[in-house]
Design goal:
Structural class: alpha+beta
Number of domains: 1
Radius of gyration: 24 Å
Strand content: 25-35%
Helix content: 25-40%
Largest sheet: 6 strands, antiparallel
Number of helices: 7
Order of helices and strands: HEEHEHEEHHEHH
Shape: elongated
Length: 187
């Protein structure tokens, strides 16, 4: 019975994938410190949501909505909230789900042992079939003003208004397919 259990566990283990890195699932949005979400982002609080559209679509959306003519689209996009001027910058981020597939590695180990190879040779294990990568894409937005450096910080007095604005911006982006429609909505 013990040998059967070990055999079953060995078979299940060899057909499994071990997750090495898991990208988070964000249903609506999340406010998080940039450095915690991904290395290389600023230390400020960011408004992060999943981007199901193609890379560069958010850039096109912001460029068209705010009529920026490809000038300072990623940084210092101005907007008004109740007679107060704010700016936002955004980052298009990809985070990968990475997992290790053990079956090709175990097969190569067994084949090397059967052939009596002293040096390990790969027969089936390649980076394409032993390490699986699938990505999720995110938009991260930071908001600041001339007086405040982080307008999404939890103790900021107008944080709820800024979050409401960003949430509406996100919903408009996700629901709009032809970005030229936005120009007519704004007028």
């Amino acid at each position: 019975m013990k040998k059967i259990t070990i055999l079953i566990c060995g078979i299940l283990f060899s057909f499994s994938c071990i997750p090495l890195q898991v990208a988070p699932k964000i249903s609506d949005y999340k406010t998080v410190k940039g450095k915690r979400f991904k290395k290389g982002l600023p230390k400020k609080t960011l408004f992060v949501f999943e981007d199901p559209k193609a890379v560069g679509e958010f850039y096109d959306f912001i460029n068209t909505k705010y009529q920026l003519d490809d000038y300072y689209v990623y940084v210092e996009v101005p907007f008004q909230l109740e007679d107060e001027g704010y700016y936002f910058s955004f980052y298009e981020i990809d985070k990968k789900n990475t997992s290790l597939n053990l079956l090709p590695l175990l097969f190569d180990m067994g084949l090397n042992a059967a052939l009596g190879n002293e040096d390990f040779e790969t027969y089936t294990a390649t980076e394409d079939n032993s390490i699986a990568r699938k990505g999720n894409f995110y938009i991260a937005i930071e908001v600041f003003s001339k007086t405040d450096k982080d307008c999404l910080f939890e103790n900021y007095q107008n944080q709820k208004r800024v979050l409401a604005y960003l949430r509406a911006l996100k919903e408009e982006y996700l629901s709009t397919h032809n970005y030229n429609e936005i120009v007519f909505k704004n007028e």
